[in-house]
Specification:
With 553 residues, the chain is of the alpha/beta class. The chain contains 18 helices and 26 strands. The structure holds flavin-adenine dinucleotide. Flavin-adenine dinucleotide (FAD) binds next to helix 10, helix 11, helix 15 and helix 18.
């Protein structure tokens, strides 16, 4: 933790040295002592401390200095650190000026020089002032600060990215948090520069892209080797499991994700049915454990980096990324998972990120405290989202087309929802319109039986409906089912094209696609179970087939 600062200034080097020594003797364990003889240097340094999130607890300033008086200096310092205690060091002849300054700059105290012995004339005064300062002091947040508008899709994207990559950050809403405007002013930026990220060392990035921010935060966007045994595309549970097994079994393995590790599971507030965790665990916790485990086995993790194409050339597979770079691997596991379907409705599109969110209950829930929100979807993810939102929102309404949740949600979640007084399930209900100015304010709901419509107040709408695999980018001859899920193993025999593309003596392995050496695992695979445990199981299983494939080539 950064120590608060005691800042001393005196143009006389001997006095400065004496005060510095006395301050260090008594306070150096709890405070950082900074001493300078130059007023200009002092004034220039204060905004830099502020940018880095440091706090000044006490200013001790000489009154008679050539560049400006101590009172003038304290007036300037007060603009930047208004809560710091202000003390003048005065000669006996200056006590009148000091007394006047008590009113002018709300001086807290003046100390007459010399102050010997400090135990009697210095420390008791400063102890008192510092105790007083400490009682109001709340240590500033020391990580990244993200400044933006709450209802902005760019801010939402950055929040999701930081949370997904497990970077602690403080969200500062420019419309509700005075610190946000203060930080912007300090860096000479305006609201047009939002969203902005203030880094720990005090630098600011305005309107950064995910790739720019990722690079600045030390994420690895480029591969270090030219050839890998195994490349895993997608770092959800399936990809992470494949990485742990690939790495631990000696394969030179690279894991690539376009956003962050964890995939859908990473956005889950509580996974309650994963083996071995009787009290459940959060998606963030599972992700943290899994990525640490994979990296411990030497797996290289590349993010944020989107794969846009694969081209097999002989035994090598060339993987192209969105930034133009390339990785070559001998085998691939595709574990790109699924994304939520968009709710096709033009009136809602314009509120995406401004009240309408796809999944993402954990990153935005706090913004809806005390307000009514709606959840669309009847699956487990919608149920979990509703439970999470119910902690902060005034009321949560789950809209489903079916009469109730019994056919689509696990019973344990239905029971939890039944026991939560501020959640209501609205069966046979569709959202037909979203209304609002800058952000979502109301929804029009329609009862599917009676076709009766009603307008309701809604600060947020969280959509968890049907899923679509991330496979549009795969242009090579990989057989997919009618919905775009990747066909594997024996199922491939059912597709008319199979015989034209598969030219090997053996059958495809269980999780192998119709391109030998390219495997699919997890939700992206046709017939997957859509569970964390099954994705993890498939990721692990895929690696055993990778070994067989590599052994025969
Ligand atoms: C909110 C929520 C709660 C859930 N709760 C539970 C639960 O309690 N229990 C349970 O068993 N299941 C739960 N599930 C389902 C479970 O999370 C999924 O079944 C599981 O995450 C699937 O894992 P996956 O690895 O196959 O894919 P995903 O988790 O979807 O991960 C795919 C990854 O691939 C990346 N990617 C996609 N395209 C590319 C590309 N072109 N280049 C690079 N990277 C790419 C994505 O960024 C993503 O990180 C929940 C899902 C959600 C959304």
């Amino acid at each position: 933790m950064k120590l608060p600062i005691i800042f001393a200034i005196d143009d006389d080097p001997q006095v400065l040295q004496a005060i510095q020594q006395d301050l260090r003797k008594k306070y150096r364990k709890q405070y950082r002592i900074i001493a300078t003889s130059s007023v200009q240097e002092a004034i220039d340094s204060l905004p830099e401390f502020k940018k880095k999130g440091e706090e000044v607890a006490l200013f001790l300033s000489d009154q008679r200095m050539p560049e400006m008086t101590g009172v003038e200096f304290l007036m300037q310092a007060r603009k930047i650190f208004p809560n710091a205690k202000r003390t003048l060091l005065t000669a006996y002849s200056d006590t009148d000026a000091a007394v006047r300054a008590i009113n002018e700059v709300q001086l807290d105290y003046y100390i007459a020089k010399p102050w010997d012995p400090p135990e009697e004339k210095l420390y008791p005064v400063l102890d008192d002032l510092l105790d007083d300062w400490q009682s109001d002091y709340r240590p500033a947040f020391e990580g990244l600060k993200l400044i933006g508008y709450q209802f902005s899709s760019q801010s939402h994207e950055l929040k999701d990215f930081l949370a997904g990559n497990l970077f602690p950050y403080q969200w500062l809403d420019i419309e509700n948090d005075a610190q946000a405007q203060e930080l912007l002013d300090l860096h000479g930026k305006t609201r047009n520069d939002l969203p902005a990220v203030v880094l720990e060392e005090g630098a600011i990035m305005t309107r950064p892209t995910i790739a720019e921010l990722g690079e600045k935060l030390g994420l690895q966007p480029k591969a270090t080797q030219s050839l890998y045994d195994l490349a895993i595309i997608g770092a959800g549970p399936a990809g992470l499991a494949a990485a742990v097994y690939g790495g631990s079994e000696g394969l030179k393995t690279i894991l690539i994700d376009k956003r962050a590790p964890g995939g859908q599971a990473g956005t889950s507030s509580r996974i309650e049915n994963y083996l071995g965790f009787p009290n459940g665990l959060s998606g963030a916790d599972l992700t943290r454990r899994a990525i640490t485990q994979a990296q411990r086995f030497g797996v290289e993790f590349l993010a944020p980096q989107e794969v846009i194409s694969i081209k097999p050339q002989g035994l090598y597979k060339h993987i192209s990324m969105a930034d133009g770079s390339e990785v070559v691997a001998r085998a691939i596991v595709l574990s790109t998972g699924v994304a939520y379907h968009k709710l096709e409705n033009e009136s809602l599109d314009k509120f995406t990120g401004a009240g309408v969110y796809y999944g993402a209950a954990t990153t935005e829930a706090y913004a809806f405290r005390g307000k009514p929100v709606y959840v669309v979807g009847g699956g487990n993810s919608a149920g979990q989202g509703a439970m999470y939102l119910s902690r902060t929102a005034s009321e949560v309404f789950i809209c489903v087309r079916r009469p109730d949740l019994s056919e689509t949600m696990s019973q344990y979640l239905i029971d939890q929802i039944g026991r939560t007084p501020n959640i209501t399930v609205l069966g046979c209900t569709e959202i037909v319109e979203g209304l609002g100015n800058e952000q979502l304010e109301c929804l029009i709901l329609e009862n599917m039986d009676s076709h009766a419509r009603r307008k309701v107040q809604a600060a947020g709408l969280f959509i968890f409906i049907g899923t679509k695999p991330f496979t549009d980018w795969i242009e090579m001859d990989i057989i997919k089912d009618a919905k775009g899920f990747i066909a594997t193993g024996r199922d491939l025999g059912r597709y008319a094209d199979f015989k034209q593309v598969w030219k090997h003596d053996r059958e495809p392995y269980l999780l192998e696609t119709c391109s030998a050496g390219i495997f699919a695992a997890g939700d992206v695979r046709a017939g997957a179970m859509n569970r964390v445990a099954s994705a993890v199981g498939e990721g692990a299983m895929a690696v055993s087939f990778v070994h067989k494939y590599l052994a025969e080539n």
